[in-house]
Amino acid sequence: MSGTSNTAVTWSSSNPAVASVNNGVVQGELAGAATITARSVADSSKSASVEVTVLEPPSPPPPGNGVISGTVSIALQTSLQSVDPSVPFVDGELIVKFKPQVSLQSLSRLSVFGIELQQVRPLGMERTYLYRANLNRADTLTALQALQSRSDVEYAQPNYILSAQAIPNDPQYTNQSWHYEAINLPGAWDIETGASNPVTVAVIDGGVVAGHPDLAGRLLQGYDFYSSAADSGDGDGRDPNPEDTSPGTDYHGNHVTGTVGAATNNNLGVAGVSWGAKILPIRALSGGNGTLADVADALRWAAGAGLTVSGVTANTNPASVINMSLGGPVACTNAPALQQAINEANDAGAIIVVAAGNSNVDASTFSPAGCSGVITVGATNAAGNRASYSNYGTRIDLMAPGGEPAGQQVVSTLGSGQYGGKAGTSMAAPHVAGLLALMKSKKPALTAAEGLSILKETARPLNAAQCNRPNGSECGAGLIDAQAALARLNTPPPRSLVLSASPNALTLNTGASASVTIGISRANFSEPVALSVSGQPSGTTPSFNPASPVTGSSTTLTIPAGSTPGTYTLVVSGSASVSGQTVQGETRITLTVVQPPTTPPPTQNIQGTRIYFDAVLRETPTLSLLLDVNPVFIAQTGTQAPYNRNGLSTEGLLGYRISAWKDVNDNGTQDVGDLFGWYRTGGNIATVMPNASNINVVLEPVLSTTLTREKWLKQLGYPAR
């Protein structure tokens, strides 16, 4: 009792015939209700009570002749996401997403190979967390491999470092005419300046210089997602102030912001692509670098529409267009957390524009450039050719001016009152983001698919020489044409075709296959659409059902993985001939082919497994069980075996909960090192009535987070037997 040093109490029961009490221990006597009271000896006015309900125990079910049968097997080891050890990531930090059936309350710490990982914070995505330990690079990869092998983990990846995709240089250029006239932007402004329906554009970058006079009145309330206080320059981690405070900053974020939407026609400084755009500044980089975990949270927050981030106030200004002039040399298939954030932002309606990267390599090897659901932009120079540094490949959607470090550069806002030039695909991307803001201002209902389709249809293709590649298609559809895109939007073509793929990213084992739904959206025509696929693994032939040409609104594409591991970009092209006009559209699918699962090591033998059939007698108001003390014993060797349990009752109970356990370490306890599995449906432990067959149980390694039969019974107050 609080308020007194004398803690002695007297106990009493309002109905001792129902429930008696002895020194705090309550004994149920008969069915009924009673109140148990503890009263202070020192102060009789102080007491505490609890209501107790005593239930009649259910009768055991009668003997029966019911049968439950199935197989018990050992889960095969799945393929792991690969990691290029040369790609930069934060030592000791890992992003982990857990499977749905895992109890999230037990995940504040993880122990793998004797390494303890502390949970830093949940990411915005469901069941996804950032973990940290004091590890060097090699030990981080060791811990990662262990996490990827866990049966409760959906995926685990390093916390990759993403960088601003610009080439640093001295800001000496003040003439914007070359890069704006290259995309016919002055002609586009005659059609739309962005003022008709102002569009919110989020710039996820290194922050903004809010006091720059050319950004006055253009900025909305943003956020600082850069979580490392040590090198943020503002002395703290996340906060509502996205000001660029990085020591020695080159104002990369402010440069990108100015290209999207610096104040225009104001007799001051430079012009932005969209005169009316509202800029949502979001800081996720410092000194040109940031982590994937911070970027993923920033992306979800930018899109808003119900996408929340733990500990961060909801975004009241969801962005219609998001620019990410950042990235890193890691394939998107190895950064599933980033792809997941992109998918969720797409679902919220955001159009995402990203820089292709500045390494003069295939853009599919970079993230987010190689991810699905983004518009990937390469860079051109003043001559109209692919810039010397710009990434290339079939993943490129469009090209835009990015300049050359030793030539003409893109000019925009820098520090407060300052202007200067920069070169990079970082500078190309905001041209496209700003143009999409113009298009969406003209047509607020513009979707990502329609916007990309129009930009591709109106772009000016680069030939092989201009692209400096064997084929001009490695520069995407070509250099954007703002005037043509706005004109096309202003007077839409009588017919258009938009293709979509669901899902648009797959990971398959060699020799396997998968199905993708290809959506076909026609505008102002109904003729059949001829479909084809390119970019598939060598020796494979994808097929459509219904077959091409397709008259309906969808078809199923079956994609075989073939025998050669790697990442492939499949391009699904469609065309229809309508009154002499050819209407075209395309969509892309990222296919990752990996080696198939290996068989379990020889030590994983099914022999010695016990299968328990615990009878559920009652579920409410409390769960009542009749525990199985004579489990089925598996004597067969190998990795799977059939089982059959006879003599089960078919009346007087709700069913049986079935579990299987192999005591690998032979210590009589269901603990780490053993194999265990429940029979589940939909991820939940299921109750099965006889007679039932194909009740298959899969054994997986017991982890600290595994809900074993012993833990389950202990939670219910039963002895584990």
TrEMBL record:
UniProt keyword Metal-binding present: no
The record's annotation in InterPro entries points to: Fervidolysin-like_N_prodom, Invasin/intimin_cell_adhesion, Peptidase_S8/S53_dom, Peptidase_S8/S53_dom_sf, Peptidase_S8_Ser-AS, Peptidase_S8_subtilisin-like, Peptidase_S8_subtilisin-rel, Peptidases_S8_13
Q: Which GO terms describe its molecular function?
A: peptidase activity
Fervidolysin-like N-terminal prodomain domain location, by residue? 82-159
Q: Which Gene3D superfamilies match?
A: 2.60.40.1080, Peptidase S8/S53 domain
UniProt superkingdom: Bacteria
Peptidase S8/S53 domain residues: 199-470
EC number(s) stated in the UniProt entry for this protein: 3.4.21.-
Q: Which UniProt keywords apply?
A: Hydrolase, Protease, Serine protease
Region: Disordered, residue numbers: 230-258, 533-552
Give the residues annotated as active site: 205 (charge relay system), 252 (charge relay system), 426 (charge relay system)
Annotated GO biological processes are: proteolysis
Which family is this sequence assigned to?
Belongs to the peptidase S8 family.
PANTHER family found in the cross-reference section: CEREVISIN-RELATED, PEPTIDASE S8
Know the name of this protein?
A: Extracellular basic protease
